[in-house]
Amino acid sequence: MWRHRMLLCCVFLMLLPARALERPDVTFKIFQFPPDKIPRIDGDDSDWAMVPDSYAIGMDQLEDTLAPGGHGIDRDPKDLDVKVKVGWVKGLNRLYFLYEAYDNYWDFSRPDLHNDIFEVVVDGDLSGGPLIDIYHRDVWTKEAVGEMADLDPRISSSDAYFSYQGDQAQNYHIFTPADGKDWAMDWGCAQYTKELPYANHAMKYNFKPGESGKLVLEFWITPFDYAGCEGPERAVETPLTENKMIGLSWAVLDYDDVNSEKHRFWNLSHKHTFFGNSSELVAFRLMPLEPQFRKAIDAQWTFNVVDMDRGLVAFKDLSQGEITSWKWDFGDGSTSTDQNPTHQYKPKPGKEGIYTVILYVTGPAGTSRMSKVWEVHVRG
Predict the structure, then answer these.
(1) Could you say which of 48, 163, 275, 299 would form a disulfide bridge with 368 (CB–CB 3.0 to 4.6 Å)?
(2) Which domains does the chain have, with CATH numbers?
(3) What is the pLDDT of residues 225-265, one digit of tens each?
(4) Residues 6+ apart with CB under 8 A from 355
(5) Would you list the DSSP string of 250-312?
(6) What is the Cα–Cα distance from 259 to 118, expressed in whole angstroms?
(7) Rounded to two decimals, what is the model's pTM?
C-alpha cells in the first residue's frame, strides 16, 4: 500500500506545472555551526552569540496577511517583536532554530489551538505543492487534471489526510509557550517528526498568561523528503549539504484576547496560504562555514572503489583553503601529485588489500596532512 501511495505522489507532482518560491528577490541564509560548537537545546541563547546579525530575521521581514485591506505594516515592537536565526551542522540533517520574542500579552491559558504560535513550514527538497488535505484535493483537480471544478468528490478528506498530508513538506505549530500541552502540533499523521530522534526543543520564559515578557525558544527539526503515516521506518530524510537551497517559512500567530479568535498573522512568505502550500515558501541557503571558523589550510579527501576485482580506486580532494600542490601516498609504495588521482592497486596473493593512504597539501598558509588508516580495501 505504501508503495502505491508513494507512486501516486510522484505521478501527482510530475503532473503539476513548474513552481517557484515566493519573494524571488531575497534568499535568506542558514548559518553553519562548526561541529565542535553545536548549540545545546536548553533555552540559553548564548550558543548563538557566534551567529552574525546578518543571519537574523526580524519583524521588518514579516507582513500581517490577516490585516484588513491587505498586508499590514503597523509593526509596533512594544506590542510584538521577534527575531529568528536558523542554523545547520554539516553531516546532520537538522535545522536549528533560535526564536526570541517579546510580546505585550502572552496568550497560552487554553488547552486547544488558541495559543500564541510560531508556525514553521519546511520543504527540504523544493518539491513544492500542497501539504494539507484540503489543498491536495483541490490542486489534484484544478491544476494536475486541468478541470475548473471544486474539490474532487472521489478524494475524501480522510484519504487525503492519510495518503498525502505532511508527507513531502512539514508544518509545525509550536505553542509559545506550551503550558500543559505538547510543545507542537504537527499538521499531519506523521507525529514522529516532532519527537526524538527527529526533533528537540527547550523554552525559557518568566511570565503568566496575559502578562508581557520575553520568550526564548530553541529547537531543531528534521526535514523529510517523505514522511508518511506508515512510520519512521519508511521515512526519507532530506540530505543537507553546503549551498543547498531549501524552502522554508514561518508565521507568528499573536492573540491578545483569550476570549476572541482574532489574531495577527505575521508571515515571512507574505502569502497567507503558505501553511498549506509549500510552493509559497521562501528560499533559504545552507551556508558554508564563516571564514573565522575555517582552517587556513586543511587536508581532506574521500574515495570510491571503481572496480574491486581490478583494485581500481578513485580519490577526490576535499581540502579547504588555497592549495597549490598535492601529494598522495597510496600505501603500496606508489605516489601521485594529481589533485584527484585514480590508482590501481596490484593484487598481492595471500595478503589483505588494506592500505593506509595519506594526502599532503601545500599552500600559502603552510602544509596539512590527512591520513586514513586501513580505510581503503581492495581484493588481495
Answers:
(1) 299
(2) 2-131+166-286 (2.60.40.1190), 295-378 (2.60.40.10)
(3) 999 989 999 999 999 999 999 999 999 999 999 999 999 99
(4) 330, 331, 332, 345, 374, 376, 377, 378
(5) EEEEEE--TT---EEEEESSS-GGGGGBGGG-EEEEEPPPPGGGS-SEE--EEEEEEETTTTE
(6) 20
(7) 0.84
